[in-house]
Amino acid sequence: MKVSAKGRYALLAVLQLSAERAKSEKAVQIQVIADKQHIPARYLVQVLLQLNHAGIVNSVRGAKGGYTLARHPSEISVGDVIRAIEGPIEPAQCFSGEAPERCPFSHPCPFSRLWEEVTDSVANVLDNTDFNSLQEEFNNGPGIYHI
């Protein structure tokens, strides 16, 4: 599984919203998220729209509008965000049901059990990692050292 730039931006945006939620329940403007996470604001708009559609963030209109998390960070997993942006978690195209007809192993595939185990393992890690624990780990970590 490879996470696209859009997927990474979505993860960073949700992490930033998680951090902002710890400070205040107010909506966070797109430019604040973009500046703090070094994400192009125009691109971030599209990412947040997808996250909004998936029920991960809420959009708040108006002069003091922006975005908030739709649920507590402990209720949003990395898997939720990845699926909202990237689609199903699948290690190989052939496992996704989009296999090209010319695959010689399509019936039966000698790798199907392996791909199923890989998918389950990756999904387990992503689904059991929530943004509250990520934020706590980041806040309590060793910090960034400049040499």
In short:
The chain is mainly alpha-helical and 147 residues long.
Average pLDDT figure: 86
> Which structural class is indicated by helix and strand composition?
mainly alpha
The run of helices and strands is HHHEEHHH
Strand content: 5-15%
Q: What is the strand arrangement across the widest sheet?
A: 1-2
Supply the number of structural domains: 1
Q: Distance between termini? A: 34 Å
Largest sheet: 2 strands, antiparallel
The total count of helices amounts to 6
What does this structure look like?
- The protein is mainly α and 147 residues long.
- The protein has one domain: Arc Repressor Mutant, subunit A.
- Helix content is 51%, strand content 5%.
- The chain has a two-stranded antiparallel sheet.
- A hairpin with a 5-residue loop joins strand 1 and strand 2.
- Helix 1 crosses helix 2, helix 1 packs across helix 3 and helix 1 packs across helix 4.
- The longest helix has 19 residues.
- It is elongated and about 60 Å long.
- It starts with a helix and ends in a 7-residue tail after the last helix.
- 23% of the residues are buried.
- The mean pLDDT is 86.
